[in-house]
Amino acid sequence: xxxxxxxxxxxxxxxxxPDRGGLTALxxxxxxxxxxxxxxxxxxxxxxxGDAHARVMLVGEQPGDQEDRQGKPFVGPxxxxxxxxxxxxxxxxxxxxxxxxxxxxxxxQAEPRKRRIHxxxxxxxxxxxxxWLARELELVAPELIVVLGATAGKALLGSSFRxxxxxxxxxxxxxxxxxxxxxxxxxxxxxxxxxDRDAAYRGLVADLEVAARALG
Length: 216
Prior knowledge:
The chain is α/β, with parallel strands linked by helices. It has helices at 23-30, 65-70, 77-89, 123-140, 150-157, 163-166, 188-193, 197-215, and strands at 49-50, 56-60, 97-100, 107-108, 117-118, 144-148, 171-175, 178-185.
């Protein structure tokens, strides 16, 4: 007898999206997503948060350890650094909408109770999660997307994306059927890992200043 195929084996979140409703309905539906295997080990879905009519949407890679535990995006050390950089660049963090390309924390763990180490999501996992991000973009309809890091860039712009080649520039691309303006920059966690953290932070702020100017 052949066993039924598990939903996560299909690698798409599409069947879990609600037919109607706003961000609240979308967030509620995402809590039960089993569109890829990442839900098995993660504590919970970490959906986007912020101003439902934000002019700017910030898209990162995936939740980290603290985000996975708290169920909110960008609440760990990288999130705190991002808030500081946004404010310094002239963008009020409370006026933005923040989310991730992948909604579950992917990690490795040597043994139980050991620290969970972030692991980059695969292209297949990013693609599976794409319908959530597409609907967020449709509902929020931001004037500008700030792309935080290489993984978010690949999720939005394809596997050839290289953040180092286009960071701090305003791009115009079609994303999920919508014409979007985007400003790519590094992920704030890369600033925390940098050898020269001050220089890396200044670079992040400079890129976010480009985004602030693009918003007018």
